[in-house]
Specification:
- By secondary structure, the chain is mostly helical.
- The chain has 2 domains: 434 residues, no CATH class; 103 residues, no CATH class.
- It is built from 22 helices and 5 strands.
- A 5-stranded mixed beta sheet has the order 2-1-3-5-4.
- The radius of gyration is 26 Å and the shape is globular.
- Keywords: Membrane, Transmembrane, Transmembrane helix.
- This is Glycosyltransferase RgtA/B/C/D-like domain-containing protein.
- It comes from Thermosporothrix hazakensis.
């Protein structure tokens, strides 16, 4: 690591970094303007929350129906609704802003810990990415873009406090930094508890280096004050929550019961072979699985699994080497600091080493929490978004490769030259894959996304023209259509037996059930529509819609609508 503090003035690298951040933001702005990635009901829920915040004065603490994920994206969406009017594009603009801030904070963190050259290169890797990664960054489904920003900011603030710490001096501006760290940590925990590894590791690093300052008491008070302010909505809810409905109980129930060793091994393998490749940028197989509404999607092939295995196990190998080198560097710089306790440069090297190790520790905790949970066992492709925090640790993960490339070799020693070439080859491969990602998936799917967005608009307009104010439909279409209609259409998602299923938005169930003119809307390929083939492996006996009408004695008119069947009451 560099042995000198970075100068504060802007240089060529900083101008290039700003240009990269601007270009990445514009590219993502173009994607969301064209309707990519296509939306779904989860995003529609955030949109409805934003509408109610902007125009009805609602102040939701959590994502509707989930008492552990904060409503940050909905409040941001409400702000942009006031600026540009309600739309899917305006809802997603807040995510572009959050991602741009993440890129800026990631660059600052890499500058503080490493070199300007590596900070710029790692920024380039983060600006790009596969279609799956960018779809998670641009979909307003709660918590994931905030995890990137808050995770990076926590380590930036810790780095500023750690690198400027002087045991026998007091600086007033450190008061603001401690308070800000607590505030960011509180907001982060309210947003999504996926951020916990970054709160934990950045806090540990801060305490290990600045423990003498903590003995004075005021840093602890400031951290707790900031934490209380930032997490106040989360704390307020849990203090008044009914037994079993607090955030921790909800998360524990989602995590599942104690896993057996075979389940743990299966979860770990799924994490390495599926989730890590998807969420760290493997571009050729963005998603295989049954959840076509989560876009992008490709068909599963043996070739895909081979490519993902190579990426996943290769990523783990790079990560393990980075961990070992980080531990060795930490021990070496600690010994040097002990031998020269008054030498400032030796102390700075050790502090950067512990911050570097803290970042890798946060990545390790993220993998551990996910690999040994139900998420990695069931649909690890869809749940891969739970390891999005690994992107925050990218500068620390590949730092040793950059060091290998830039290391000076006094003589032409073949082992050193081979090592340098190997490091260059790995980083070049990662860069090429990052460049391929947007063109291979995102750009290729834009025409389809445009058509889907237009079709959704036509469906909503037709429903409004027909005077439909309430619909029963499947979960993944329900809140999507309600949001796109700006709540002119209320909806209820139905179960396999055409009974009300999982419904998130308060008030919709009662509204639809009391509407005698409520219609039914299902995709032509839906299991609810006559003629649809149901997999024999599915043990649930599905009722199709027309058989359901015969049993209930209701009469409906069937209308073909943009690949959907609309059933209007007679």
């Amino acid at each position: 690591m560099e042995t000198t503090m970075k100068s504060s003035h802007l240089g060529r690298h900083d101008v290039l970094a700003f240009s990269l951040i601007l270009a990445a933001s514009i590219m993502r702005g173009i994607f969301i303007f064209l309707g990519w990635p296509w939306t779904n009901s989860d995003e529609g829920t955030i949109g409805i929350m934003a509408l109610r915040i902007a125009y009805h004065g609602d102040l939701p603490i959590f994502y509707y129906g989930q008492h552990y994920m904060g409503s940050h994206q909905a409040f941001l969406g409400a702000l942009f609704f006031h600026l540009f009017g309600p739309s899917l594009f305006a809802l997603r603009l807040g995510l572009v802003v959050l991602f741009a801030l993440f890129l800026a904070s990631s660059y600052i963190l890499a500058r503080l810990l490493y070199t300007r050259g590596w900070a710029l290169f790692s920024l380039l890797l983060l600006c790009l990415g596969s279609g799956y990664v960018m779809a998670r960054e641009l979909s307003a489904i709660g918590g994931y873009t905030e995890t990137l920003l808050f995770g990076s900011l926590l380590f930036v603030l810790s780095a500023l406090l750690v690198l400027t710490y002087r045991p026998r001096s007091f600086r007033w501006w450190r008061v603001a930094l401690y308070l800000l760290w607590g505030l960011v940590a509180g907001c982060a925990l309210w947003s999504d508890l996926l951020i916990a590894p970054f709160v934990c590791m950045s806090g540990v690093v801060l305490f290990v280096v600045c423990w003498r300052e903590f003995l004075h008491g005021w840093p602890v008070l400031l951290l707790l004050l900031g934490l209380g302010i930032g997490a106040f909505p989360l704390l307020y809810y849990n203090l008044h929550a009914l037994p079993g409905q607090d955030s921790w109980s909800v998360l524990n129930s989602m995590r599942g019961s104690q896993l057996s060793w075979s389940q743990k091994i299966t979860g770990l393998l799924n994490t390495i072979r599926i989730s890590i490749p998807l969420m760290t940028g493997e571009p050729f197989c963005p998603l295989y699985g049954k959840f076509v509404y989560l876009a992008p999607v490709v068909q599963y092939t043996r070739r895909c699994q081979v490519l993902m295995d190579l990426w996943g196990f290769g990523y783990c190998a790079v990560f393990l080497i980075a961990l070992c080198l980080a531990c060795w560097t930490l021990w070496r710089t600690w010994r040097q600091g002990r031998q020269a306790p008054g030498e400032e440069q030796a102390q700075l090297q050790w502090r950067r080493a512990i911050l570097h190790a803290g970042l890798l520790g946060a990545a390790l905790l993220t993998i551990y929490m996910y690999a040994f949970s139900n998420g990695s066992l069931h649909d690890p492709d869809v749940h891969a978004r739970y390891v999005i925090g690994l992107l925050v640790c990218l500068p620390a993960l590949f730092w040793w490769l950059w060091q290998g490339i830039t290391a000076q070799i006094e003589k032409k020693r073949w082992p050193a030259l081979v090592g340098k070439g190997g490091c260059a080859l790995i980083l070049t491969y990662v860069l090429v894959m990052s460049l391929i990602g947007p063109f291979l998936t995102a750009f290729g799917e834009v025409p389809q996304a445009i058509e889907i967005a237009r079709r959704n608009e036509r469906i909503v307009n037709t429903l409004v023209q027909l005077g439909v104010k309430s619909i029963y439909t499947d979960y993944w279409g329900c809140n999507k259509f309600s949001f796109l209609s700006q709540e002119r259409i209320a909806c209820v998602g139905v179960s396999d037996e055409l009974k009300p299923g999982r419904n998130r938005v308060p008030g919709y169930l009662e509204l639809v059930q009391h509407d005698p003119k409520a219609a039914y809307l299902f995709s032509a390929s839906s299991k609810y529509v006559p003629g649809t083939d149901i997999s024999p492996a599915n043990s649930v006996v599905h009722k199709n819609i027309e058989r359901y009408f015969q049993q209930t004695g209701r009469k409906y008119k069937r209308i073909s609508l943009e690949g959907y069947w609309l059933y209007l009451p007679q």
